[in-house]
C-alpha cells in the first residue's frame, strides 16, 4: 500500500519491486481491467522495503496536491475557511465503497483538511483501478494531475480499505513506515495480510493536521505572490 507522487513532469516509482503498494514510473502505465482478477497464491505482494527515493516521491505527491489546493484558494480567496482536497473516483467504480469509507475515516480523524468528491475537472487527484503486478500505487505530473491506482489482486490479498486509506494518507502528506505495527496505518503491508486496521493513529492524525496548517499556509503565500505578480 504505498503512494508516492513526484512533482516532476514524470512520476517516480514508490514500489520498485512487485511486492509493494506503491508508485510506478509514468512510462510503465498500469493495465486496466474491466473486472477484478483473483489473487493467486504466488502473487508477489509479500515483501516490503523502503528507500530514500520512495520517501522523496511520497513528499513530492503531497507537495503537488497541496500546491493544487493552494492555487485554487488563491484564485478564490473568498472560499470557505475549511481546506478541501477534491478527488474524483469515477475511474475506480469497483472500489467506490472503499474510497467512501477511506474518505469517512480521514474526515473523522483530522480537522485541518477535508476530502470531498468532485468532478474530474475540479479534482486535485483521482482514483483508478486495474491489474498491475506491482500492486497499488500513486502517480502525478506535479500539477494536481495525480492519481491513486488500486490493484485488484492486491486488494484480495490485503484489506482493500486499509490499502485505500493508506494511499490516501500519502495524499495528505504521510510517509511510509513499513516497520511499524498494525495500529499504524502507514506501516502499510509491513504487518502482513492479516492486518486490517484502516484507522490512522494519534501521531498520524496530529501530523496531518500540522502539515495542512503549516504547509498549506506556505503554499498559499507562494500562490498569492505569483497571482499578484501577474
Structural summary, described in words:
It is found in: Secreted. Residues 1-28 form the signal peptide. Disulfide bonds join 182-195. It catalyses: Hydrolyzes proteins with a preference for Tyr or Phe in the P1' position. Has no action on amino-acid p-nitroanilides. The protein is an alpha/beta fold and 230 residues long. The chain has a domain at 83-213: Collagenase (Catalytic Domain), CATH 3.40.390. 36% of the residues lie in helices and 12% in strands. It has five helices and five strands, in the order αβαββββααα. The chain has a five-stranded mixed sheet with strand order 2-1-3-5-4. Strand 4 (137-139) and strand 5 (146-151) form a beta hairpin. Helix 1 packs across helix 5 (202-228) and helix 2 (96-109) crosses helix 4 (160-171).
Q: What's this entry about, in short?
A:
One of its GO terms (cellular component) is extracellular region. With 230 residues, the protein is of the alpha/beta class.
Describe how the helices and strands are arranged.
Elements: H1 52-75, E1 84-91, H2 96-109, E2 114-117, E3 125-130, E4 137-139, E5 146-151, H3 152-157, H4 160-171, H5 202-228
Parallel strand pairs: 1-2, 1-3, 3-5
Antiparallel strand pairs: 4-5
Beta-strand segment tally: 5
What portion of residues is helical? 25-40%
The ordered string of helix (H) and strand (E) elements is HEHEEEEHHH
- Form type: globular
Q: Give the neighbour order of strands across the main sheet.
A: 2-1-3-5-4
Largest sheet: 5 strands, mixed
- What is the CATH first-level class name of the domain at 83-213? Alpha Beta
CATH architecture of the domain at 83-213: 3-Layer(aba) Sandwich
Strand content: 5-15%
Chain-averaged pLDDT: 76
Radius of gyration: 16 Å
Distance between the termini: 41 Å
Quickly give the structural class. Answer: alpha/beta
- Poorly predicted runs are 2-19, 22-29, 34-48
Number of helices: 5
At CATH level 3, the topology of the domain at 83-213 is Collagenase (Catalytic Domain)
CATH superfamily of the domain at 83-213: Collagenase (Catalytic Domain)
